[in-house]
Amino acid sequence: LFKPVFQTFKFELYVQRIKFIIFSVVSFIVAFISGFINRVLPWPQYSFYQSSLWWFVFTILFSSSFFFSSIICSEYKKKTGLMIIPLITRQELFVGKFLANYLYVVVFAAIHYIIMYILAFELYGPPLISTPLISFAFVTLFILALCCLISFFSSFMPSPAYVIIIIMALYVFGFSMIQSIIDSSIEPLYSFSYLYKIIIVINNPDFSVLDRISEIDGTIYWDFPTVEGAILSLSVYVIIFFSLTLFIFKKKQI
Amino acid sequence: VKISIKYFDWKQKKLGNHPLHKKNIRKSMSLLFIMVFSLTMGVLKPSYANSDYSFSVVPGTQILEIDHCNLQLWKETINHTSSPLDWFPGNSNQTGAQSKKTVRILAFGECDTYTLFLMIYSAYDIDYFELSDYGYDSNYLRLNFAHRYYNFWAYDLAIDYFMMPPLEDNSYESSEMYKILSHPSDFSTLIDDYNNFSETVNNDPLMQSLNISIPEFDGDYFLQYLIFNELATALPSNVYLNELIDALGCENASVQESSLILNCKGISNYQLEISYNEQGLMDTFKVKTEDGTLIYKITSWYPKYVVYTIFGIIIAGIIGLSAVFFYLSRKKIKFFKEN
Question: Is the ipTM of this complex over 0.90?
Fold first, then answer.
């Protein structure tokens, strides 16, 4: 079981290497420059991580979309599956490709965190706080859930471009539209934009005592999820969409 | 290798290739490099005020460390009851103790005489509220010294006082906005105004009857106050410092390169030597006896230089690896061509 998965994993790493290098270089330059043009230093140290991670979600969205949007649909579009699938099972092919792409996106996120940490040392000096490590753990889970969702769309969409558009639209408008329809007393644990907030807020060492809910004119505003809520929601996303993707890929005719 | 960009030619309704010449690539790369370098090294810095000097303080952290502390000699030279704690709060009398200073915000602007008088009040422990009670308040100063405005640069500084390492995060004991004048020569006008003001207050019969007086301005004393209140300099430091000590009328101060030297009198004569770094902030602080024996020394370093070293190693590593890959691929191509 593991050998074909590993071979696919290796092959996928090789195929996607140029994409990874381009993304990494861009990330490196953006993080490097943004760290030097600060005229006002965010204070205290955790605010620097929070401001640095605020827009990073779009980088995660773009990189995950570019790596995962073609994970299944390209097999059909380019008819590559016809040549490969008889040699290995579809599950093995999917798992191998998924792991390789996931590794790239996580390494890409890790580069951002490392640069962020180095720049924090430059700006604030020792000691550095350890909360970004917890934030990074959440990022890896967030990416996993996001990749499962993208793979799910990729399993039935005709082209990677449609997948990218849907994911972006879902993140930018979709979840907020659902949130406006549903009763505000229900915590939006289904929303990726809401779940991402824990990655930002958890950098605050006083995270556990912060108020999560605010109420204005009878409307409840959810600021960020709990650790348990975020882990549970993201895990549910992973289980449901990974299984669905595997199921669709197995049943789909070439 | 020919590099080209594909584009759609609307006239001919077909895809075309626009060749990228090596010259153009080099030009673009050079421009990109200059921009990145300028941004990172602070060449494209915004101008803060109209001055012959440039204010080069940037947000970031400086670590100060007690490098040498001879308490015995301190007490014998300066004062039996004094110690470094009088000048630097925390454990500043222990060799190896560290302090952290973080510049958080930069600002510039114009202030009036009243604002700068508050600085002099603070230096001489003058009770502002006592003066205001008898009419010498902000309105009095603004009325009598109207139309006098001073350009300044300012920086907000959070300070962790001296402590033995490890330092703590977010434990700063002081956070304050410090100002320096864009034109240090403006101090002479300010001092004239202050001396006129002190004469008025001291000659006021009501103030005399209440036994309230304010001291006359002493340049050396005020300079020492500024030094222990995070005096920064604009660049070039030596020119700025020279203009400052001239304007303050200091008799016991001099400037050597980017160092300010203050001759002081304690039990015996001693010297304060403060050198300024390329940002215009204090780099080293030394107290020496008259014959040059070191009594006390503070050194400083910036974590950013550690970061530059790390980035330097990373970039050198990338270049090295690229060179190795390039060499190996060339070797492979050569091998295939030959066989």
Answer: no
